[in-house]
Structure formats: structure tokens, C-alpha cells
Amino acid sequence: MTEAEQNMPLLLTGARRWFEDALEASMRAAGEQPVSSAQAQVFACLDTDGTTVSELARRIGITRQSAHQAVHSLVAMGLLEQIPDPSSGRSRLIRMTAEGTRVHHRAQATLTVIEGVLAERIGRPSATALRAALTLPRGEPPVVRAP
Q1: pTM exceeds 0.70
Q2: Is residue 21 part of a domain?
Q3: Is the dihedral of CA 122, 32, 85, 56 positive or negative?
Q4: The CATH number of the domain where 83 resides is what?
């Protein structure tokens, strides 16, 4: 199957995988601990003051159990910590440690460089248009009937 024949979800998945592969390889080359795609998504979805595992799972679109596993592995790596949730006696908030913040900032800077590489390869106008298109509001997912 050629890329021209692929549907939009496959094309978007391939583009996402390109960014993830570039980020992982770049972070490894910089001597950082490797993190999985699911673990990286946890970082992307964290609030500054902390986020519950249930909320992380919802934002990422994975099960609570999967989010819990990703969080616990990042806690074991020293990148995240769990603290009591001041608004709930039963919940715990997940937030970055100082080391997690350092690694996250490095990853964000690396992604900026990777995005620049993409712009060089596909042209700055195309990269700018792609970013603009992906940030437009899409509304609720439609329910459609195929012809």
C-alpha cells in the first residue's frame, strides 16, 4: 500500500511514529533514560500541580490500569512522584520531580528541533500549514452513515 492510498488515521499515526522515533533516538543519544510512547504521553498530559491517574488515562485515551503502569514505571525511574490530593482524601496526584522536569524540558526542546527538521524536509510553508490545520477546532466526532 502506498502512502497516497492510506487513510488519514494511518497517515497521522505514521507521522506521530516518526516524531516518537526521532525523540526516542535523540534522547538516547543524549544519554537520557529511554521512555516508552505511553510514558511520554503521561508527561504531555500532566498539569503543573499534578494530575490523577484517572484523569491521565482519560486524556491519553487508555485504560486506568495502563496509565497506572506507565506512572509507576516513571515513579520508579525518579521522573514522577505521587502526592496526596488536597481536594480528595482518597486520590493521589501525579507530578514531575525535579529530574522529571529537567528531562521533560529537554524533550520539549528536542521536539522543537525535530519539528524544524520536518520543516526543512517538507518546506516551512507546508509545516506551518500542517500545524495550523491540526490546531483548528474539529468539533465533536461525527456519526456518519457510509454510502
Answers
A1: yes
A2: no
A3: positive
A4: 1.10.10.10
